[in-house]
Amino acid sequence: MRRFFNLLKKNMNAFGLVFLMAISFCFAMFQGGFVSWFIFYSFLPFAAYAAILLFYPLHAITVERKASKRECQAGESVEIVLTFTRKNRLPLLFMVIEEEMPDELEDRGIHRRLLTFPGFKRTISMSYVLESLPRGDHSFQSIRFWIGDFFGMIEKEAIFDSPLNITVFPPYHELDSLYLDRLFNQGQAGSTKKIQREHSVVSGVREYQPGDQLSWINWKATARTSEIMTKEFEVQKNQDVWIIHDDQPSILFEETIEVVASFVHSMLKKGMRVGYASTGSSLILPAGGGRHQRRKIFTRLAKEGPGATNELAEKGRKGDLPANAAVIFIVSEITREKVDILNAFRTNQGLTMLSMKNPAILSDEGKQAMTAAITKGIKVSFIEHEQLLFDRTEAMAK
């Protein structure tokens, strides 16, 4: 009996359609006359169309989803194009399409439901724009759509899988060169090639070349040869810079991601070799340079999320980072636990902690942690958005 009721409930619309057809036919038979038969024959095409929809092969429709770009910066817009292809030209009154958005987009209130009237078309295309996308690796999976008849008695629904990934890189600012040089000269990070060269051992002299600094001129050799001669330096091994991101949950988490992206972009642009790690993952990206390294780190930053674990501290104790590497730890605020994490890399040179929190509003615990860091030989600095001199849109335009 339960099985019968389940079958009846599932096909209630179909039974209702048959019931209405039977009622109108009986009314025409018993009542007779033009009006009763006119009602029956007027309702017959709509009932026949609804009956055809009951057997319409929705799963024979192919669905394709395309994006105008698979990678973009946070805040940019992406156009999504949906294409439905069917094998017959049966007229469809309407089609409602609903995108099943990734959770991170749904949490921001982003929903997309589209209505179209296919008619006799075999190929149906429509598009929509996702504006101001947030940072993240957004994975689109299913597309849900349904069709129906004139009176809404029959509705058929189908869900198709059409995977699509859109990687949204974090925003970044163009750091001012003077700010980076001042940071390096204070010993808070690895030196650039120019600064390294000034502290290298002089191995000889050569003729002046455009771009050489005045401090490199060898005046004695210049007077002797009557030509401007500059010092030739021994090539020192380039010092890598490793940036570590604090993955602890914080209201400033997105701001720390933005600062990391700004440092990575600006350092790589100056020709430095940059590596990346985060406290929430034991995976370390080796130091490298160029656009390929920038893309690797930005892809990693796009996927970063708050986490309570500190898997990186053990890596520091094992010495997985090169001993000559400078380490910059970017945190939302200074705590004793984070000082201990950075201190695990004590075999490295130039340990630096950059905090997003204003030093004027540090708690007593924060001040004690800062004192402990300085005692351990860790340099502490604070960074605010005012130090990121150029607007983000201007940096992306370059």
Question: Can you put this structure into words, describing what you see?
Answer:
By secondary structure, the protein is an alpha/beta fold. The chain has helices spanning 2-10, 12-31, 33-54, 103-106, 177-185, 193-198, 219-225, 253-269, 290-303, 312-318, 336-343, 364-375, 392-397; strands at 62-67, 71-73, 78-85, 95-99, 113-116, 123-130, 136-148, 155-169, 202-207, 229-233, 241-245, 274-278, 285-288, 326-331, 349-355, 379-382. Helices cover 35% and strands 26% of the residues. The protein has a six-stranded mixed sheet with strand order 13-12-11-14-15-16, with helices on both faces. The protein has four domains: 2-50, no CATH class; 58-169, C2 domain (Immunoglobulin-like, Sandwich); 177-193 and 236-397, Rossmann fold, CATH 3.40.50; 205-233, no CATH class. It has 13 helices and 16 strands. The protein is elongated, with a radius of gyration of 33 Å.
Record the SSE blueprint.
Elements: H1 2-10, H2 12-31, H3 33-54, E1 62-67, E2 71-73, E3 78-85, E4 95-99, H4 103-106, E5 113-116, E6 123-130, E7 136-148, E8 155-169, H5 177-185, H6 193-198, E9 202-207, H7 219-225, E10 229-233, E11 241-245, H8 253-269, E12 274-278, E13 285-288, H9 290-303, H10 312-318, E14 326-331, H11 336-343, E15 349-355, H12 364-375, E16 379-382, H13 392-397
Parallel strand pairs: 2-8, 11-12, 11-14, 14-15, 15-16
Antiparallel strand pairs: 1-3, 3-6, 4-5, 4-7, 7-8, 9-10, 12-13
Keywords: Membrane, Transmembrane, Transmembrane helix
Organism: Peribacillus muralis
Domain DUF58: 205-347
